[in-house]
Amino acid sequence: GLLPASVKAKIPAKRYTPAWPTSKHTRKVILLNGCVQPAMMPSIDPATSVVLDALGVQGMIVNESGCCGAVKYHLNDHQGGLEQMKANVDAWWPLIESGEVQALVMNASGCGVTVREYGHYLADHPDYAAKATRISELTMDLGEFVAAQSTEALQQLAPKVKAAIQAEAIPGKIAFHPPCTLQHGQKVKGVVENVLRTLGFELTPVQDSHLCCGSAGTYSVLQPELSAELKKRKLTSLMAGNPQAIASANIGCLGHLESGASIEVRHWVEWVAEALAKPH
């Protein structure tokens, strides 16, 4: 209550955080340990694991891993970013080399686009080039991974999600903002939207959905005025269809949009996990 309004607006609202599943599965994937997301919105990783668990997949976080390297790289600390990338390669490689995991699943598209380019960033490092290329090949956005599961698996989740929507436990009418790092960087377009529709959500139309929300990594910090104008325009487009809530797929976009939104802003996986993990 004592914080300045400009700072208070940047603090994410309290969220429902499910318990991390304890089930063991033969199918396993690596989740990024990360840096910004676990600090700002620690509900997203356990929510991701709940949804993966419901699909018969175990989400694993390797403690020795950390930041993907994007933030340092964006701020021109290329060497620092490369060192973080190498540390992640070292941490993940034993699980990849042994065949224990089938993919690296990214639930922050800004991190996903960076890890997908590890092979490029580390191409001139002989001890890491081949490993980094393999890691890039195995990296998928969470929406991609969920969409790649069998139709039967998704259909098993849909009744619980629809029941939660009908009970008004979670919003059913959503405006989805596809992050630039997802639709332009990773070229993943319409995938998350199709997953949400399959699970029972109604997606409102959003004009100019290809445009940036203004977060853009460190852009919102370094160019606050321009960033604020982009956010205002994006929120106007998102609100035009009178949604109950706004969803996205990247921590930067989520925090940026939430700081100016009049309705809830969440990672899409949070609502799916809440529908699966809570009785309604």
Detailed description of the structure:
This protein is of the alpha/beta class and 280 residues long. It has two domains: 5-144, Glutathione S-transferase Yfyf (Class Pi), Chain A, domain 2; 152-277, Rossmann fold (3-Layer(aba) Sandwich), CATH 3.40.50.1860. It is built from 16 helices and eight strands. A four-stranded parallel beta sheet has the order 2-1-3-4. A four-stranded parallel beta sheet has the order 6-5-7-8, with helices on both faces. α3 packs across α16 and α10 (151-166) crosses α16. The two termini are 33 Å apart.
The number of helical elements comes to 16
**Spatial strand order of the main sheet:** 2-1-3-4
Average per-residue pLDDT, rounded, comes to: 93
Q: pLDDT under 50 segments (min length 5)?
A: none
What kind of sheet is the major sheet? 4 strands, parallel
C-alpha Rg, in Å?
Answer: 18 Å
| SS content category | alpha/beta
* CA-CA gap between termini: 33 Å
Instruction: Please write the string of helix (H) and strand (E) elements.
Output: HEHHEHHEHHHEHHEHHEHHEHEH
Q: How many domains, in number, for the residues? A: 2
CATH architecture level-2 label of the largest domain: Up-down Bundle
Total DSSP E strands: 8
* Helical proportion, percent range: 40-55%
**Which percent band covers the strand fraction?**
5-15%
CATH class of the largest domain: Mainly Alpha
CATH topology of the largest domain: Glutathione S-transferase Yfyf (Class Pi), Chain A, domain 2
What would you call the shape? Answer: globular
